[in-house]
User: Fold this.
Amino acid sequence: MTASPGAAPRIPTIDLLPWMSGDPQARDAIAATVDDALRTAGFLLVTGHGVDPGLRTRIRDAARGFFRLPASVKEPYSVQVGGRGWLGPGAEANGYSEGTETPPDLKESLSFATATAFDDPAVRAEWSGENVFPAESPELRALVETYLEQMRTLSDRLLELLAVALAEPADFFTRHTAHPTWGFNINWYPGTEVVGTPEPGQFRIGPHTDFGTVTVLDRQAGKGGLQVFTDEGGWEDAPYDPDAFTINIGDLMARWTGDRWRSGRHRVLPPPADTPAEELMSLVYFYECDPRTRVEPLPAPKGRVAYEPVDSHTYLRGKLDAITVV
Assistant:
């Protein structure tokens, strides 16, 4: 992604180390940059996060061994969107969330979600459960559980930064993440030798916005990779830094801010015609909030749209149902 000389990039890179140092000037500058970026693209790159790159590599290696197994071996782990297990080919079409009936997404996923045993029986039944780790990849459990702990810490740190960027108390969002829900997908994007020739309008992941508060993405660069949409530039390749996480906000956060910030619209391109065997894998952590949080938009002048308050998880369930291919 390019910008005119002297112009600030639409998707800036934020180093969290100066933020965590506590220096008031550095924090003010970072907060202002974040506010501006989330008004335009809904995306950031974040470095200085402290997450071991070797851990991410080991997760990919373990997951790849599972994904390359025959479908008959993977099928016992099969689930639908929002479940805990294997999302096989054809299970998901993210373009549905925008009302577009696209062909199913060209990917497979290992999907994990909240394991917290909530006190409320109804919440516990709908939003918590035991995660499933394939017996064929025995090393995956310890790696994923370590990664999830680090994602929770990083996500709360990001929510504190976002609160300050709105000139709100630092715990404006994290007071609602004592027992949050979350989702985590290991997305495998194989080449055409696995998925076949893409249909017209078919993507590895169709155009959509995410649904929760913040998404923390560890991605790989590729021709059939991530694109983001802005009003100024349309669809453009997302900037890439191997040391950085790609961060975007979701629909719930956009609603919470009264559309001051935009939910980052994005897609993942299909396998490229000139390198059809390209294989990519992404680690995607979707952070949400405590069930039954009342999400009420910030009033003007911070907020721009006075949405009706919603129950966070009634809202999220509707979004998840929308992308499920029945």
User: Anything to note?
Assistant: The mean pLDDT is 92.
